[in-house]
Amino acid sequence: MFDRIHEECGVFGIFDPAKTLNVTQITYSGLYALQHRGQQSCGIAVNNEGKIYNHNDEGLLNEVFNEMILNYLKGNIALGHVRYASSENKGRENNLPYVSKYTKGHIAVSYNGSLVDANTLRANLEDSGAMFHTNSDAEIIAYMVSRERLKTESTEQALMNIMNRLSGAYSLVIMTPNKLIAARDPRGFRPLCMGKKGEAVIFASESCAIDAVGGEFIRDIKPGEVVAVTAEGINEYTDKCGQKTSSCIFEHIYFARPDSVIDGQSVHFARQEAGKCLAKRDPKDLADIVIGVPDSGLDAALGYAAEAGIPYGIGLNKNRYIGRTFIQTAQSERENLVRLKLNPLPAVLKGKRVVVVDDSIVRGTTCAHLIELIRHAGATEVHFRISSPKFLNPCYFGTDIPSRDKLIAHRLTLDEIRKEIGADSLAYLEIDDLKEIAKDSNVEFCDACFTGNYPINVPEEE
Ligand code: SF4
After folding, report:
1. Pocket test for ligand 1, best of 115, 262, 399 (most atoms within 8 A of CB)
2. Helix, strand, or coil here: 398?
3. How many CB atoms lie within 10 A of CB 461?
């Protein structure tokens, strides 16, 4: 509705060997910090003496969980998930964590990413007798791990054995009757990090979730690494590490929270850097004020303002309380919805030439309304700046960047887009700038949605 790309999941897990913490409450709080990664469903599975109890449903955390449910989920290992459902995997059966039982006991899987060969894997497994109840890649992984576990001495070894057969993005946290296991695909497409709280070990999609539960960040899970936590301690396996990495650069531009640090890079500073890169390509006297489109445009707008020497202002007020139900009922009133969500401040904008920084343009459906509102609030010029390059290609690694024909930058030239959205000028981040924005990172990046250079083989677009 708001012409935004969605991340398809956030994961959280905690193992408290001392059994002194309320792991359910901590997981709930950790997921709260990851709610931006998925708002359509959520779930928590808790391990109580080897038995796993699971609760998940459609909705935000505060809609799905209440005190009674949280009190019911008791144990000392917990696994959580927030999910954005793509068009192929809508439906309650796909809510995570995925929980199953086999001869070695329960297995629960929280998952962020997307397997590029999921359909082939599923078909091959079905041909050999497997039955699947969901469309989730987590079920495929749970099934493959469980089957492999029958031939190996541990779940983590089973997981490492099947990693060669998985292609794509997967940041996983797996819970067994007596372990919590984290794994990141060898390319490191999606983030995953480790922290601690007292004696408890935590895994989370982003460091902001570890901060939110009063934990201490330890480190990122390395691309290809498997880490297994038991009551006896932590075992780290790096056999699958060392491949060329392709971490998602768009995590830094838009998906992740600015207070997260991913693979050594502060997201806040990456966004600021993107804003500075945009400013370096513009005349210094282009505008009187720089504003950002909340939330992910704000950091980049700060960077732009600092580099250009133009005052930064809060020109758009975001209403944070527009729920899903309201959005569903207001589908036909896009303009009103933009206005309700983002209200311009005439006191800041009136009589000003304004640089507006946003993180991306996908279909271009809401920019025109936004620019109209800013003009209506009194801006004399609107210069739209985008802190990412043009989206030209779909993503196969766990986001919902759509097919090329739906991407405005694939259909129209820069000037045609500018005219369509009604801006006085329009500029995107250049591909070369991507190298500049995350210089502190210790991994290499995927930029396929901008460049078309896919780091692994992907399906042909239909
Ligand atoms: S294609 Fe784009 S969104 Fe997808 S992983 Fe690569 S950089 Fe991220």
Report:
1. 399
2. coil
3. 10
431: its two tokens: 């591909």
Q: Are 183 and 223 in contact (CB under 8 A)?
A: no
- Rounded distance between C-alpha atoms, residue 6 and residue 9, angstroms: 9
Q: Which of 178, 183, 191 is nearest to 142 (CA)?
A: 183
**The whole model's pTM is what?**
0.95
Measured from the Cα of 394, ligand 1's closest atom is 1
Residues with CB under 6 A from ligand 1: 189, 248-250, 395, 397, 399, 401, 446-449
- Tell me whether residue 382 is in a domain: yes
Residues 240 and 307 in one domain: no
Point out the ligand 1 atom lying closest to the alpha carbon of residue 448. 1
Domain membership of residue 22 as a residue range: 9-245
Task: Give the range among 32-41, 140-149, 281-290, 323-332 with minimum mean pLDDT.
Answer: 323-332
In a domain, 177, yes or no: yes
Residue nearest to atom 4 of ligand 1 (CA): 395
Pick from 447, 451, 458 the residue to mutate for probing ligand 1's pocket: most ligand atoms within 8 Å of its CB.
447
- From the CA of 281, how far away is ligand 1's center (Å)? 25
DSSP 3-state assignment of 6? Answer: coil
Closest residue by CA, ligand 1 atom 8: 248
- In a domain, residue 455? The reply is no
Q: Do 270 and 240 belong together in one domain?
A: no
What's the CATH code of the domain at 123?
3.60.20.10
Phi and psi, residue 333, nearest 5°? -115, 60
Q: Which atom of ligand 1 is nearest to the CA of 401?
A: 3
Q: Which residues are catalytic?
A: 9
Lowest-confidence region among 143-152, 245-254, 325-334: 325-334
| pLDDT band, very low/low/confident/very high, at 320 (cuts 50, 70, 90) | confident
Residue 1: pLDDT band with limits 50, 70, 90: very low
* 241 and 311 belong to one structural domain: no
Q: Ligand 1 centroid vs 8 CA: distance in angstroms?
A: 12
